[in-house]
Structure formats: C-alpha cells, structure tokens
C-alpha cells in the first residue's frame, strides 16, 4: 500500500542509489512541489544539492524574504537571487499575455543558467514535476526548463540529466509527503501560484508601481482570508489589477483611480473550478480595507465566473 512514509523511504533509497556522490541543481519557486522535491533530495544527498530561488519581482508581498527563511529553516542549501530590475526592464511596455509569459520564462532560465555556471561539476537537474504536469505542463519549473533541457539549450559543459522524484504523484499525495517530512503546514497548504506570478495578474503593461499596488491589495486579501479561517477551504485566490480607472469620492474629493478584482475558486485539479461563495461580510471587510489602505485603488469587484468557460487567471 502507498503511504507517505513508505514513499519517502523507497524514494530516498532510490535517489541515493541513482545519484551516488553526484551534484544536483534545483530551481525553487516557493511552491509546494519544488519545496517537497528539495527536501527529499536534501534527505538523500545533503549538501550535494544546490537550490536556486529567483526573485523576479512578481512574487507576493514579502514572499521572497519569508520563503527564503523557510528554506533555510529546512536546512536547504539555497542561493537567493534578486533579479527584479532585470525582469521589470525586460517587461516594460509589454501588454500581450503570452509575450509576458515568454519574457518571464526566458529571464528565469537566463538567471538560473548564470547561477548554475558558477557551480562546478553539476550532473543533474532536479525538478518538482508532478503527475498532472506530465499530462498538461503548466509551471515554469515543470515546463520551460524541461523543454530547454530537452532541446539541448543548456551548454555542453552542463548536459544535465533529469531527476523528478514526484513525477508519479498527485498534489494531495505531494502534500501528504511534505507533512510526513515534517515541513511546516503553511508551506504545504500554500495555494498554487503561477510561475509568471503577479505578471499575469496585472492586465496590460507591468510597472513597479502597479506591482506595489497589487502586492498591497493581495496582501490584505490573503491575510484576511487566513484570519477568517477561509484560506484552507479555497483552492486558489488572488487579486487582479485591472487596466480600468473609475470615478470615486474620498472625503470631499473626487478620485479617478484603479479597479481591482478579487478572485477565489474551489477546485481539485485546476482543470475545472467554481467561483467560491465567500461570505458577504468577508467581502465587505476586504473591500473596505483595500480601498482605505491601498493608495491608487478606489473600486473592488468580485469575479463570479467559473472554469470553464472562464479560466482561473485573467491572462
Ligand atoms: P487557468 O488560468 O488556465 O489556470 O485556469 C490553471 C492553473 O494554472 C496556473 N497557471 C499557470 N501556472 N505558469 C504557471 O506556472 C503559467 O503561465 C500559468 N498560467 C496559469 C493558474 O494559477 C492555475 O493554478
């Protein structure tokens, strides 16, 4: 019978056997899959694993710093790279969603490659690919690096073999493995988050100021969701910054500011999703807090579309 404990035992033994004294590099995203992969590899080969965590400037508020602390707490050998400016520069003026994805994906590979080249004798590329990714690839770490690898994009000196210890698991199994490994629940229960991050939740072009507005609004939404005990009941939630200004009044003054949309869905696999029936009192609180505290937002709307025909993200 499959149990998290038996999976860990046999996988760690296999990894030791397969990897011997070889060195492995792995890109961490802050998400559940890459984190559990890292902890498994760390258990098997320890310091022969080097992890790279790239800040593309499109993460949630304080996410990079918080997640770096979590990784260090887990004893992982992790290199954090601040590449915000590089990404903001490459994205300036770009509005088309797929083009944004390409730029972010390529930027990510470039930074990863650059870091990888500073290391010596790497033989393997670890990836947090899980079974649904094998069927329908979605994540940056699951797709771009893999195709990059497969098309031979990595330089000759770095012909890396792939090691994907979670490739036969579903998400709920990955979470159970993470808990069994003693990882903190807040890491394990984390909602899915797209590789391009807030870059595809800012409709239209991306600027550091828009990122600031979205991070602040999103932080209020997520914090209240946790406070109200709603976070674990939701598959995924986030705020979308719309390219729409509208008129409002603040005190005695007329405002002409941005609109944000709140999104929250229930799902089991992201292939289909229902909009979450969040309590009105909660929505009222979130709306008030965002409008009162986030400079640049004067209107909040709630997305009541399910997938299909809508998608979870807006881009
Ligand atoms: P959609 O919007 O297609 O999203 O209903 C389904 C799931 O995939 C995530 N998503 C992405 N993840 N890179 C990713 O790593 C992407 O470009 C991307 N686009 C969507 C989305 O957040 C949801 O969990």
CATH class of the largest domain: Alpha Beta
Count the strands? 9
CA-based gyration radius: 20 Å
Mean pLDDT: 92
The CATH architecture name of the largest domain reads 3-Layer(aba) Sandwich
Strand content: 15-25%
Backbone shape: globular
Major sheet, described briefly? 5 strands, parallel
Care to describe what's here?
The protein has 315 residues and is of the alpha/beta class. The chain has two domains: 4-188, Rossmann fold (3-Layer(aba) Sandwich), CATH 3.40.50; 201-302, GMP Synthetase, Chain A, domain 3. Helix content is 43%, strand content 20%. It has eleven helices and nine strands. It has helices at 4-19, 32-45, 63-73, 84-91, 97-117, 131-135, 140-150, 171-180, 185-188, 208-227, 280-293, and strands spanning 23-28, 49-55, 78-82, 122-126, 161-163, 236-250, 253-266, 274-275, 297-302. Strand 1, helix 2 and strand 2 form a beta-alpha-beta unit. The longest helix has 21 residues, at 97-117. It is globular. The structure holds xanthosine-5'-monophosphate. The site of xanthosine-5'-monophosphate has 14 residues, from loops.
